[in-house]
């Protein structure tokens, strides 16, 4: 037995050195692959592919391998894979990595979740990546942070939160403008900013953003983007009341010049609407039929627009049964969208995550305090053997510590009471706002429906006369506008009082227009109520917005849109 012992020792030593040799070889290959990541991404892919999986022996190497592999796949424009492995890498870097590795690992796990359609999990990873980025002293990943904001914006957009999506897109654009980088990416980002403005019906801002993106596309000779952005500008012009025949002529010129006369598929619905406005029912129906083939791939908003389009075409053809069927489909889709907007607030998810992180940090502090207490107790036991005077001093420190803890608990209790008070006040305020909203909706629901009916079926003489009679019974007289103004002031922090005080020159007719805008009536409904055209309503609204712009800057809570 004693004679065999040296042999086993030799075997153990050989295995130890072999293991160290494999580790060194794997680390060198990982370093080489990372050095080639940006200059020669295809070579980096070959190098990392040459590493045998059985030679990745440690948790560190596995985490670094999967993170680098995801980065190399992205540089080579290959779809990311390995969601479960990436989750292990994130867990490892959270325990052992630096903030740069945490930022990168959370970023790529977020990308994997996004591609899988897991919006909430993706957003959680992006928020954690953003937090890790804020702790990096000197970072060369500004472009990745801009992309992170883009991805967060896309999630908000998918969940129909246009305001939050716009905020994220604007942040991304600011980073691209500040740090330079890929000019094309700034162009794409500006187009997304324009989409955000369009979703909020801020059409003038959307046109400005699309204009900037279009200039960059023209300068770079990006024909596909030129066609896309021009069509987007045309769709906004259509919403603002520009003549449909002129828009069709402009689009035909763009298709001929940049797309060999071919109409892109995502322009079919716009062209159908334009042809319908021009009275060309045949072309409108042809493009609508092509849209129907792509219906399953449409977003909820696009599905609602399609249903509205088919209803309008059927009404033109005299097929009122089909028109009613698609109108009901439109209303169902819109109801679903509104419900989704209410239930899928990504901001609530972000806040829940921050609260969760705060809870984790508090738990870590408590664990640390328990460890300190255990160490102090051990020191006390040792010092009790002969250092009585040290024991007395230590007990004095403990009393001081307990006093600090009591002060902290008292402060925490006061903070909890303050929080509960504030939450109670917020609940009261929300209930007031709810009652005001119900009052407004109940008071004007019938008039809104009549106005909408008048605007939609205005071509019928008989129906037009009937609706005008009903409107006369619900006339918007002086008393009615006083009711609207009182509700608007209560709901919008005295908005109309401030406008009257700061702009006494505004006519009473424009005061009525402002009241109707704040009350939530659409430009088409307002045009019926004030006996004006929708185009004039848009023009008057734009002029009023410019006139009171200084007040809106001072009072952003007035929320004029």
Strand content: under 5%
CATH architecture classification of one domain = Alpha Horseshoe
Number of strands: 0
Structural class designation = mainly alpha
Instruction: Identify the overall geometry.
Output: globular
Major sheet description? none
CATH class of one domain: Mainly Alpha
How would you briefly describe this protein structure?
The chain has helices spanning 5-35, 41-49, 59-75, 83-96, 99-115, 119-134, 142-158, 162-179, 183-199, 203-220, 223-239, 244-258, 268-278, 281-293, 300-317, 320-343, 346-383, 388-456, 461-473, 478-491, 495-502, 508-518, 523-529, 534-547, 549-554.
Describe the structure.
The chain has 561 residues and is mainly α. Among the domains are: 30-139, Alpha Horseshoe (Serine Threonine Protein Phosphatase 5, Tetratricopeptide repeat), CATH 1.25.40; 454-558, no CATH class. 81% of the residues lie in helices and 0% in strands. The chain contains 25 helices and no strands. Helix 5 packs antiparallel against helix 6 (119-134), helix 13 (268-278) runs antiparallel to helix 14 (281-293) and helix 18 (388-456) crosses helix 23 (523-529). It starts with a helix and ends in a 7-residue tail after the last helix. The model is unreliable at 1-20 (pLDDT under 50).
């Amino acid at each position: 037995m004693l004679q065999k012992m040296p042999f086993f020792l030799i075997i153990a030593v050989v295995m130890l050195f072999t293991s160290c040799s494999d580790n060194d070889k794997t680390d060198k290959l990982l370093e080489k692959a990372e050095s080639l990541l940006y200059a020669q991404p295809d070579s980096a892919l070959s190098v990392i592919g040459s590493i045998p999986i059985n030679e990745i022996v440690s948790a560190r190497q596995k985490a670094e391998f999967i993170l680098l592999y995801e980065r190399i796949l992205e540089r080579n424009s290959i779809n990311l894979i390995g969601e479960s492995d990436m989750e292990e890498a994130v867990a490892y870097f959270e325990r052992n990595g630096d903030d740069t590795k945490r930022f990168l690992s959370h970023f790529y796990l977020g990308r994997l979740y996004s591609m899988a359609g897991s919006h909430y999990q993706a957003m959680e990873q992006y928020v954690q990546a953003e937090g890790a980025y804020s702790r990096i002293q000197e970072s060369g990943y500004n472009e990745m942070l801009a992309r992170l904001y883009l991805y967060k914006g896309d999630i908000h957009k998918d969940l129909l939160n246009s305001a939050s999506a716009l905020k994220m897109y604007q942040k991304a654009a600011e980073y691209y403008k500040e740090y330079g980088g890929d000019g094309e990416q700034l162009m794409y980002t500006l187009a997304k900013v324009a989409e955000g403005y369009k979703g909020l019906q801020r059409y003038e801002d959307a046109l400005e953003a699309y204009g900037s993106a279009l200039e960059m596309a023209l300068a770079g000779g990006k024909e596909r983007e030129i066609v896309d952005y021009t069509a987007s500008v045309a769709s906004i012009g259509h919403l603002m009341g520009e003549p449909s025949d002129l828009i069709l002529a402009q689009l035909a010129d763009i298709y001929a010049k940049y797309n060999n006369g071919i109409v892109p598929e995502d322009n079919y619905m716009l062209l159908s609407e334009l042809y319908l406005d021009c009275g060309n029912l045949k072309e409108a129906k042809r493009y609508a039929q092509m849209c129907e083939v792509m219906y399953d791939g449409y977003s909820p908003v696009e599905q609602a627009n399609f249903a509205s389009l088919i209803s309008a075409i059927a009404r033109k053809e005299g097929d009122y049964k089909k028109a009613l069927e698609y109108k009901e489909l439109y209303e169902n889709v819109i109801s679903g969208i509104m419900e989704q907007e209410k239930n899928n607030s990504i901001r609530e998810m972000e806040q829940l995550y921050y609260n969760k992180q705060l809870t984790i940090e508090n738990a870590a502090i408590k664990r640390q305090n328990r460890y300190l207490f255990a160490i102090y107790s051990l020191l006390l036991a040792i010092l009790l053997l002969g250092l009585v005077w040290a024991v007395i001093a230590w007990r004095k420190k403990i009393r001081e510590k307990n006093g600090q803890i009591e002060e902290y608990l008292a402060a925490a209790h006061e903070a909890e009471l303050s929080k509960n008070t504030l939450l109670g006040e917020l609940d009261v305020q929300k209930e007031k706002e709810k009652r005001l909203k119900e009052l407004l909706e109940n008071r004007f629901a019938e008039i809104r429906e009549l106005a909408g009916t008048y605007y939609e079926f205005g071509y019928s003489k008989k129906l037009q006369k009937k609706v005008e009679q009903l409107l006369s019974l619900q006339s918007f007289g002086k008393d009615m506008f006083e009711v609207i103004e009182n509700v608007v002031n209560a709901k919008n922090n005295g908005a109309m009082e401030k406008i009257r005080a700061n702009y006494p020159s505004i006519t009473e007719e424009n005061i009525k227009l402002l009241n109707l805008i704040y009350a939530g009536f659409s430009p088409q409904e307002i045009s019926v109520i004030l006996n004006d055209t929708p185009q004039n309503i848009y023009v008057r609204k734009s002029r009023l917005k410019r006139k009171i712009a200084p007040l809106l800057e001072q009072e952003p809570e007035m929320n004029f849109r």
